[in-house]
Amino acid sequence: HQHAELLSSLGSAADKYPKPEGVVFSYGTAGFRTLANRLPSVVFRAALLAVLRSKRLEGAAIGIMITASHNPEPDNGVKLVDPAGEMLDQSWEAHATALANCPSTDSLISTFTTLAAHLHVDLSKPASIIYARDTRPSGPALIEALRGALSVFKGNLKVVDLDVTTTPVLHYVVKATNDKSGTYGAPTEDGYMEKMAEAFKVLMGSRGPLQPLFVDCANGVGALGLAKLSKHIASTLPLTPLNDAIGTAGALNSQCGADFVKTKQALPPSIASSGILAQDGARACSLDGDADRLVYYYLQDKKKFRLLDGDKIAVMVAMFIRDLLKKAKLVEGDDALEVGAVQTAYANGSSTKYLNARGVPVRCVPTGVKYLHHAAQNFDIGVYFEANGHGTVLFSPSTISALQSATPHSPDEANAIKNLLALSNLINQAVGDALSDMLLVEVVLAHRGWGAPEWDAGYEDLPNRLLKVEVPDRMMFQTTDAERKLSHPAGLQDLIDDAVRKVDMGRSFVRPSGTEDCVRVYAEAKTSPEVESLASNVSDLVKHASGMTSQ
Ligand code: G16
């Protein structure tokens, strides 16, 4: 009887959010992402799945984030967060896709019922949902659709609305809410800021105040997070927000933000024209639209743009942590702890070579935080960053216990252990966070006594180019070998290999984007002219294979 009532109220609620005709949805690299006006039904159905998952997991809190991160303002998206603060378990992505594509309310109800049975979900169990959105103008309407779905479950559902906040804050709150030990931190945005600020103070000790840091907020929700964080740490690290116009229509991610800087390999025009980076020792960083990506940059000799991307962050952080482990006498013998790095095919060849040469093991996985995160969990301390600035550092539970119970034999050892533990509190253990990563970078620079140029001097990036090619059907491009090779269309990989062989130190790969309707082409080579020609040749091959050109 109860179930019949539930399904009937589900039917009436779902009628308000019909699936648009002629669109096929797919749970991609970071959930569903497309034009916002296509998404109300998708958000409604994603919320249904979140409730099923929570019920299946004995009422553990599941997160729902409404964001399209780096995508243009007219887009939006929805993704689900698992109880440990990680991305939705991959085996459930297909269920999200199935619900999203049901053509009618009837088929939605029957798919929902089938899924509940197949997944052994007891619908009478309690559930708990935590949700948030970024600053996109389309957010409130999508939140309405989300609430429409949650309203179906009435009293048996606990709901926390975090309102407008960053993606990493949502992940943190989900993790902290489900943390039975009660040691991870208070499950609120304030709790998160306090936890980070406290760890930052321990790590900085008597260092600072530092020179002000310019922070490009991509005109997105990071501006709000930055202002909150700033209250806690401004006396040590003064932060100057740039591109923080969250209320200006069309401004989000436009000509600014981490994706713009990384892809264009240039300053946001607003920063270039302001001249602020010509000051002595000036450094700046860019967040993306939901503040989970970070890249740094500065002007060499006050003129030349130099990018310090996710690879540069990974290398600096991995070497810093390894040095702390050495100081703590934890790199040899039975107690040895290993630092490893996880990258994707986009990692600059020079960064991989640098890490390999210094004995840091490196694994390559497909694009997407979900893949990097899981691979990083196989190391005692796993440093994972995508070149585009997504990343974090994971400390395994046994590493934390080993650090907590280690007996130092000197003040230096004690200090190193204290700093390693503080790092595990500073760095978001659920997902990469631009703000947490920014504090991490500043801590390492302060400990090393470096400015941006000294950090940059570690290795020289191979010239590289990332292009987008809009094709009629991006799904005809299928990859293998952690996206480094194409398996389909047949024969295309051989042509790419031929193009690569024509340039010195060449490398190139092609993959369909999981967040935008395009194919991405990456190329690197010894010189800029060679990389430009390689990228353009491979793009031409892609267009030809798509039937867009005749030769
Ligand atoms: C998302 C994912 C990232 C990925 C990026 C681009 O980032 O979380 O792991 O690198 O999309 O993916 P693709 O090349 O498949 O479009 P964000 O910042 O947009 O959430």
UniProtKB/TrEMBL annotation:
Cofactor(s) this protein requires? Mg(2+)
Provide the residue positions that the database annotates as binding substrate. Answer: 386-388, 511-515, 520
Catalytic activity of the protein: N-acetyl-alpha-D-glucosamine 1-phosphate = N-acetyl-D-glucosamine 6-phosphate
Q: Which residues bind Mg(2+)?
A: 69, 288, 290, 292
Q: Which SUPFAM superfamilies match?
A: Phosphoglucomutase, C-terminal domain (SSF55957), Phosphoglucomutase, first 3 domains (SSF53738)
Query: Residue limits of the Alpha-D-phosphohexomutase C-terminal domain?
Result: 466-539
Could you tell me which Pfam families the record lists for this protein? Answer: AMG1_II (PF21405), AMG1_III (PF21404), PGM_PMM_I (PF02878), PGM_PMM_IV (PF00408)
* Cofactor binding annotation: Binds 1 Mg(2+) ion per subunit.
PANTHER family according to UniProt? PHOSPHOACETYLGLUCOSAMINE MUTASE
- Name of the molecule in the record: Phosphoacetylglucosamine mutase
Q: Which organism is it from?
A: Kockovaella imperatae
